[in-house]
Amino acid sequence: MRLRAMGPRDWHEIAKLICVSTNYWYQCGGKPPIFTAGPESCLLFCQVLDDGRGGVLGFLCSVAHPASNMLGPGVMRNEADAAALILRELNHHRG
């Protein structure tokens, strides 16, 4: 076993782990599975704030699902970039 940075090749396995473990938790409590569309419905989504020249000013990951709503983690260069990313993400999930 070793600790390493997550990379794109890990995304599907992480989504699968989220799907299986969350469904198991719900079923242990006598409830039906919450993620019925499979691991693809459990991917984390990240928004990137682009500076318009190909640079990244920040990113913010989120989950919006009946079982879990979460903003973060995220990293931004300053408070204005943080506010822009958070507002964009909240508006996106509002529908």
What does this structure look like?
The structure is a single chain. Helix content is 36%, strand content 26%. The chain is globular and about 50 Å long. It has a three-stranded antiparallel beta sheet, covered by helices on one side. By secondary structure, the protein is of the alpha+beta class. The protein starts with 10 loop residues before the first helix and ends with a helix. It folds into two domains: 33 residues; 52 residues, no CATH class. The chain has two helices and three strands; from the N terminus they run αβββα. The mean pLDDT is 84.
Task: Quickly list its features.
95 residues, single chain, globular, alpha+beta, three-stranded antiparallel sheet
Please give the structural blueprint.
Layout: H1 11-28, E1 45-50, E2 56-65, E3 68-76, H2 79-94
Antiparallel strand pairs: 1-2, 2-3
Quick recap of the structure?
The chain has 95 residues and is α+β, with helices and mostly antiparallel strands.
